[in-house]
Design goal:
Strand order of the largest sheet: 10-9-4-6-5-11
Number of domains: 3
Shape: globular
Structural class: alpha+beta
Distance between the termini: 68 Å
Helix content: 25-40%
Amino acid sequence: MGANTESSQQLRTALDRATRPDYPAWLRHVESAAACTHPVRLRGILATLDTATGEILTHRHTSTLPDGVFYKSCGNRRHTVCPACATVYQHDAYHLVRAGLVGGKTVPDTVRTHPAVFATLTAPSFGPVHTRDVRHCRCRDKSQCACRPSPCHARRDAPACPHGTTLACWKRHTPGDARLGQPLCPDCYDHAHHVVWNQHAGELWRRTKQHAERHLNQLARRRGLPRVRLSHGKAAEYQARGAVHFHLLLRLDGHDPDAVTPPPAGITTADVIDAVAQAATTIAFTTGPHPGQPGGWQIAWGSQHDIRPITLSASGDALDDQAVAAYLAKYSTKGTEATGHTSRRLTSESIGLYADPHGTHPERLIAAAWRLGEASGWSGLRRWAHMLGFGGHFLTKARRYSVTFGSIREERAAHKRAQALNTTGRGVEEHPGTAPFHRQASLDTKTEETTLVIGFLTYAGTGWHTTGDQLLANTAAAQARERTRAGREDLAHQEWEQSSSPPLAA
């Protein structure tokens, strides 16, 4: 009954909006944020400036706009929070990563000849957990693996831990098994070491890359070659047990401080693989002292790591550039969902809802981070308790590896400005100047405008006014996406027809 009532209310509010005389203008007004789940509403003044003199030509308040506010997409990167904004972020990440492999977007095309590898480095064991061990997986998408796994923890003697739990499991887990990643004995599992490792994983990677680069330069010096540099793209992903592991793209460059240059021919992809493997197995350090662990915790990589070469056309054990770019882009939109936990930043008021030292595996990890973060110098664990201790970015890169997210967003904004300027005839009488509004001042040289619209805006709220508004906006956005997809397919078909050779005469 409740669901039917909610659906009826949504339909009523949607019909109420759709029957208003200003509905077409409202739909155009929310177009830029139509697919967003939680758009940000902004209130304030929009001023039109002369770009040559800086003079304010006109100004008006957002109260003259539909709903009296300006809508902006939330921009969240996580699919579980906002699928539409996360998809945009994922596409940007794909182009950012791939440009570093094949060139384009200000990256020289010569990078496609540089040795490159794709590596996955994992955390060590903090206690036995239920796993799905596939010795020889042939599936391209590991998340959809259908290969036959080995028994989880097969033991002849089936020993018991001090808490009386049998440390054995003979089940062959399926990919979606809820027990994957759960400790065989939660009381034996070292949750404190786990969250501390997550906190220091970024520093461990920094030292690992530094060691690998130093090894390659020593090799170059012995061979009489100039210095080299490793440029990287890195995506972090949570395993089901809640430990972070890194997917790394490493490209070998020449050591030029001002440009991306090819490395010397005497350093090969095999040398890069050896350098990364050596660093992953040797680099370790100990954290500073903690009242609960005076000797600190050791931070090192786990024994499981995978390092493979990247080619423009994959063969054998190599990966192709498109697959690598897709992998990293996909991982960049994930969070702690794989562990079964999702929440925003925790406070003293909300921590009790998610932390329990005797509860589920994620609850114990959060409790451990919150407890350890009480000590002086360890407050970061409390700040990132909702992320199980990990406070780093999920997609990072070296400065010279590729372009930035900002430059990709500016390019997209410039494209939208050009579209808006070409279609300002629609509805300008009702709401002049709403379509071409953007906040990037540097883009005006790209569209050769003589005026600039600047917003002096403040936060007015988050989300749509009604569920009916959300239904109408999301439906319009879905229809626009479908038209775009159909148009791309039609253009591709036309291009294929034009490029195909005419059939031979009978």
